[in-house]
Amino acid sequence: MSKFTLYFKKIALAVLVLAIGLAAIPAGGASAAGLPDRSTPTPANQPSNSGLERAWARVQATYQREGTRLEKADEFIGKLQSLIDKANQKGWDTSDVQTALNAFTSVIPAAQTAHDPGAAIISGHNGFDTSGKVTDRTTAIETVKALVQVLKDTRTAMNGTGKALHEAVKAFRDGHHPNKGPTSTTP
Q1: Do residues 57 and 129 make contact, with C-beta atoms less than 8 angstroms apart?
Q2: Whose CA is closest to 122, among 164, 150, 95, 97?
Q3: Which one, out of 18, 67, 98, 179, has a CA that is 20 to 30 A from the CA of 139?
Q4: Residue at 157 is within a domain
Q5: Which residues, in sequence order, are CB contacts of 94 under 8 Å at separation 6+?
Q6: For the chain, how many structural domains are there in total?
Q7: Tens digits of per-residue pLDDT, 44-67?
């Protein structure tokens, strides 16, 4: 190997080491950032509307479920009354279930009246656009609160009769199926 080749290899190696070393050093200088200007609102300073949009969607879904149940109340009452009549023909005591059903039936008109204003709130969708996105946060909050109040008023109008009816039916069923013991949830 000639001296020239050996000399050339050493220089190439030195240049390569130098290039790698220079590549590891940052080219730009570092400087401290100033404090952010808090006088003008930034998106980070403003509350997110996504929670409000989810609340609007959730309360609308609850309102729709409630409306569906109220629409089907007459059908439900008729079916349950038919079952009570069949049980009476067998000589079974259905007085508790009948009392609970009568109480439930009597509050349905008041519950429907309490439920009805929600349709106007949803169709107006004040503070929201047609796709449920917030257009005016303050108005949107009031709209959600108004629909929540309609749901509360409907529940108050029901006066716990739905739960009482459920409990009466459950007690009747448990009393007339003695072979069915409590179900175990553990394997």
Answers
A1: no
A2: 150
A3: 67
A4: yes
A5: 84, 87, 88, 172
A6: 1
A7: 556 788 899 999 999 999 999 999
